[in-house]
């Protein structure tokens, strides 16, 4: 390994000479060995971004090569961890340096001393290929960590395989060609881990939230964006998703957010319980916390580190959901580094490659045939925080070009205490068509038809409301008054969902469908009744309508719903 | 003793360029001697060929013959318990005629990040005695809550009142106020100091003064010195520290000036691309550390250029701080003090500091209800201006009236009026009592029965 020399220091960017390192190689700068990354090479000069504060670093200090890019350490023990942006466990950092993070600390991403019980699933003489599982470790009570042949290795025939307790560095299997396998993989964070092929987004990611599943559904392996403006209910939304999304692993990347907010999350998260298993949610979670005052280069790296860990669990055949909060802060880190490098700025000072970087990131999401056989997925929910709430700014625009789902969190709805505060007019999902066959087959052939009907009613409602503001609702024609009433029912009985109510917090697909169908049925009855000359007042005051509002709170809802619908039929037959 | 150099090749604005040096560390403290005067600076860019130094006291009087000495150390702040009660300059030198601080410890001022895993969740209510803050935008210990204001508004009075009145409910605790002035006028500074002296607050305050005619570059140092002092008082001496800095806008202007002098690629409106990170490093030094008794609560004041909240300074601040208090020109013109507009104001940590065990169980509900009708009443003002008050429905008239009364009774209070949270809630209830009970949709019946003035009267009998 070469040892170079620092030539120039200006903020987090350092120039050095005498290095042979390649682009994105990890190097250690200065006497203290600050973790850094090569981000440019020109002539005999290497341009290096430093993940830590560079105060006191002098020209002439050594720069040591490591011969490898920034890698994530992948092995048992990642789950439940809380890391900084370059995968240093924060609790270990606190043990090493106290309450403030000091510089030049090395802490491994996984514990190299802890022993894990390795149970082989292949035997001597079996042929294994890259990505294939050779054994399992019970990482958490409910999650098996699969020990895989690293991707891009040749594989071969198992010569020896052991079972018992091992550290991640100890050999658990030997191949015929002498290759030793252990339980630790190292993977460069900026490179996507390979799969056999990416699959079409044909399976929905169930969240149990009616507005999401029913209107703006996310596919497994899909990408979604939420705006993270002031008071939009982003935190509640993220917690609900973490709790209820049918994924195996949740990866949360807090990128450039508030320290106190992270403290809140780190206190609340371990207390959240996975409602399906009764186990702490943390057991299937990994948190990356790189607050806004932690070094900017590490913030830039945190998104990649989080993604690499997500992909690793995907490669075991798991469904993973990664939340990136917020991608705007990440883009700002890119801008800051670009300006330190004196690069030519693009739109609003962001580097010209902003769009490409965002695209690279979101493209790493997806459901895929994995190397080891079977499928796994990484779904991404990225928060954007546009400055001044201006959605035309470059980060939001580039993000919206990439993602397929947009959940427009709306502070007005939050103020009205309507949760989840997803605006039904501004949000969209482009997975509608891809997911339709699944819903037709697994729930009901009318899934998309009803959805479109309901959305059309809400659209019309929005237009009518403007008129109502001017002239009052009594001045509207009768059929439009019915539309207003039905829209109100969709909004209050169906779109609104209480995260606090034990039953309503999660709504299965079938129940979602039937509740919506019931509201639409009311509309059919109402339109029919109008034609018979029955007054709007009478239609609005049928008792079964209010009974319908309560059905969503029933866990055994089916008999209740049948009763309500039978009553509705009777109610309308009785109207004169 | 380190070497002195007389190799300045260029002096440009606040920067000097020095050649042919031994290796010099980034961010190192630099001393420049010219005539009898000693100026200090900091290394911004260092290489074998040239070292760029920003001079805090300004480059006036410097020439190519000035002697430059690199100290081999980063800038440190001398600290001891005796610092409380002192008035210092923006670069930390005594300004009150007193002696230099005899340090017990020297601390680097750059400020390391608090490990997120070591942070304690802030949840202790701070009573400021101002209804619009305590009642509807509650401050908690460890929070950073900026005041967004405009030129010519009484934000300084608000800040002073908070500094005077802020206290925790319950037992007496040791606390201190740190006041950092950046680029404010001499008159404003006098106003602050006079008030501190009048109320005896100076005894438990540390004041850093960088006035409008002091060097702009020094301002970059001022909040760092203040925050380093705050960390010392909070985490070494177990004090609850309230730090007020005014005016953040001047600080950001200095950042921009430095950026321009260094010919950096500018970001939005010419401010440097790293302004977000730079502000975050200051603001994020608020908080509580698990296992430590003290805390740091921040009140940055910034004047929004042109009252524009989307300007980069308030905008970036808003993304880092936990809410904002908005001082409104409209309310100020109506003669209401403090002219805090609660509608765009927000305290993100309010929920963890109110309710049972903190303030009172009905706090959230009362606050929501006041918010809702004040917002609605404000909207109705626009409508009433068009169609006339008479055309409004009875309900709308009530709401409109409520908004007016809300401003006069709840928002408006004396400069020395220190309302307890219970008084604040009582005023809120009295205002709500003018509305029919059926309109109090956000408040649980049991709170209405308990706290509504109507029932309070009957309960006594």
Detailed description of the structure:
- The complex is a heterodimer of chains A (576) and B (461).
- With 576 residues, chain A is an alpha+beta fold.
- Chain A is 35% helix and 23% strand.
- In chain A, the strands form five sheets. In chain A, strands 8, 18, 19, 20, 21, 22, 23, 24, 25 and 26 form a ten-stranded mixed β-sheet that branches.
- In chain A, helix 4 (259-268) links the parallel strand 20 and strand 21.
- The model of chain A has no long low-confidence stretch (mean pLDDT 91).
- With 461 residues, chain B is of the alpha/beta class.
- Chain B has 14 helices and 22 strands.
- Chain B has helices at residues 131-134, 155-165, 186-198, 218-236, 248-261, 275-283, 312-320, 329-333, 350-353, 363-387, 394-411, 421-433, 445-451, 453-460; strands at residues 4-5, 8-12, 15-19, 28-34, 37-47, 50-55, 67-74, 76-79, 87-89, 105-108, 119-120, 125-127, 139-140, 147-149, 167-168, 175-184, 205-211, 240-246, 288-289, 295-303, 323-327, 340-347.
- Chain B has an eight-stranded mixed β-sheet with strand order 9-17-16-18-20-14-21-22, sandwiched between helices. In chain B, strands 1-7-4-5-6-3-2 form a seven-stranded antiparallel β-sheet, with no helix packed on it.
- In chain B, helix 11 packs antiparallel against helix 12.
- Chain B is elongated.
- The interface between A and B is large, with 66 and 68 residues.
